[in-house]
């Protein structure tokens, strides 16, 4: 495994001293992506970007953890993102949706600005992901329902990709609605695009290939870290994705040995599953704490080969036991 900082990666990759295989980088993907060569052969990109849905409120609950809906700085888009192409303007948005300016209260205008900032940010990212993707590769972008349509339109008509589906992740344990003023948010969405009609696609079985997935991240799979402040283990990452969902995306869109990339890795679910499935992985994360725990997770992930060997060893052991028993009976 290659573990590098953003600066180390920039130096070594430019000098062609390393390739992308089995590499984890601590740094900002917007600095790393422009360096990646178009010929890098990335077969599948899974990207789980910020959703622009954070709330500054913290709900206090009796006898259990507070519910914090502020995921962190990375999920706020109120200010214009610097040094990015303005792909759409507020006026484009107003014209496209025929928005009536007189109906825009100060709060609604703020919401609109934040939406347009987010769209510019994600479209810039989408351009780069498209550029580095192999010609027969696929991209999966997680998003909340409000961004499915803009992403589908941009991917299909601006980039010319094939939009395959929107996969629904139905969460069976959504955070409760304490204010009881709306429905609990139990779904997340993942837009699936292929770069060409030759993009790899494996039909995994009728049941596996339904466009929805139901499950949670729980038990041993949920990563925890020690909090000195609270003197107990707390959830490491607020938006960790289930391994079984990521496994489905990887196995349907790639073959063993292919490179799977995740440029906003969080707790590194994608590289861990890629390793388990005998794929090569490339992932970045800019938060040091997530990176540190995520790296340990990838190191500890075992490949399918390892499990196959373990099963074989068990079977061999069984056989020797049988023959010892047979010997004793004689
Ligand atoms: C929604 S989370 C990903 C969670 C991940 N799928 C998992 O299973 O743990 C998004 C992550 O992107 C990271 N991030 C945001 N902007 C980034 C950037 N420009 N470069 C690298 N990482 C970034 C955040 O720190 C956050 O951990």
In short:
By secondary structure, the protein is of the alpha/beta class. Helices cover 35% and strands 20% of the residues. It has a single domain (2-303), classed as 3-Layer(aba) Sandwich (Rossmann fold), CATH 3.40.50.150.
Radius of gyration: 22 Å
The CATH superfamily label reads: Vaccinia Virus protein VP39
For the residues shown, what is the average pLDDT?
88
Bound molecules: S-adenosylmethionine
Number of strands: 13
Q: List unreliable stretches of 5+ residues.
A: 59-64
Order of helices and strands: EHEHEEEHHEHEEEEEHEHEHH
Question: What is the straight-line distance between the termini?
Answer: 52 Å
**CATH architecture label:** 3-Layer(aba) Sandwich
Discrete helix count: 9
User: Can you tell me the overall shape?
Assistant: globular
How are the strands ordered across the major sheet?
1-2-13-12-3-6-8-7-9
Q: Structural class of the secondary structure composition?
A: alpha/beta
Sheet bearing the most strands, described?
9 strands, mixed
Strand content: 15-25%
CATH level 1 name: Alpha Beta
In CATH terms, what is the fold-level topology?
Rossmann fold
User: Helix amount, in percent?
Assistant: 25-40%
